[in-house]
Specification:
The chain is an alpha+beta fold. The protein is 21% helix and 35% strand. A seven-stranded mixed beta sheet has the order 1-2-3-4-5-9-6, sandwiched between helices. The chain has a two-stranded antiparallel sheet with strand order 7-8. β4, α2 and β5 form a beta-alpha-beta unit.
C-alpha cells in the first residue's frame, strides 16, 4: 500500500534557503557550521546536498555527497563520490524514502560520470547497513570513525563512531 503523502514527496538538491531546515527544528543545530561548509563546497562544485520534502511538512530527509575531498579513497572528483550525513526523520523511516533518495543520487552521480559510491555506516546502525546491502553496497573495510567538528557555539566536538566502509559500483 502506497502512503498518500509519499507521492507528494520530492527529492531535490538543496539551495541556500534550505540550510536552516537541515537543522530539523533544532535537533541538528550543532551541525550548523558543517551544513554551511558543505554548501560552500556545493558552490565550488565539490559537493551536493540532497533533500526530501513533503509540502506542508517540510524537509524529511537529507543526504550529503562529497565529489572531491582530501581523502581520494572516499571521493576523488573523477570516479569516486562519498555519501554522508544521510538521514530520514524517524516518523518517515521504513517507507521507501531512503531508497528513493539513494536512487536519485546514484542516477545523478552516473550522469556526472562517477562509477563508485562510497559511504561509512556506523557499526551500531544495523538497519542502515541492511538498507545499503539491499541496494547493492558491500563492506570493503573498517573506518575508525574518529573526526571532529566545530558546533554552532564555536566549540570543538570530537566524535568516535567506528564504522564499516561500504561501496557500490554504479556501472
Amino acid at each position: 500500500m502506497t502512503l498518500p503523502w509519499l507521492a507528494d514527496c520530492s527529492i531535490r538538491q538543496a539551495i541556500r534557503a534550505d540550510l536552516p531546515a537541515l537543522e530539523w527544528d533544532g535537533e541538528l543545530v550543532h551541525y550548523r557550521r558543517l551544513f554551511a561548509q558543505a554548501f560552500e563546497q556545493v558552490q565550488r562544485g565539490q559537493a551536493l546536498i540532497w533533500i526530501a520534502e513533503i509540502p506542508l511538512q517540510g524537509l524529511i530527509g537529507q543526504l550529503l555527497v562529497s565529489l572531491k575531498s582530501e581523502r581520494p579513497e572516499l571521493s576523488d572528483g573523477l570516479e569516486r563520490a562519498y555519501v554522508y550525513g544521510f538521514r530520514v526523520k524517524s516518523l518517515y523511516r521504513n517507507q521507501g524514502i531512503g531508497t528513493r533518495m539513494m536512487a536519485v543520487v546514484e542516477a545523478d552521480l552516473l550522469e556526472r560520470d562517477f562509477s563508485v559510491v562510497t559511504l561509512n555506516v556506523s557499526q551500531q546502525n544495523s538497519g542502515a547497513r541492511r538498507l545499503y546491502e539491499r541496494l547493492g553496497y558491500r563492506v570493503v573495510g573498517f573506518e575508525p570513525g574518529r573526526w571532529s567538528y566545530i558546533n554552532h557555539e564555536g566549540q570543538r566536538v570530537n566524535v568516535h563512531e567506528p564504522a564499516w566502509r561500504m561501496e557500490k559500483n554504479l556501472r
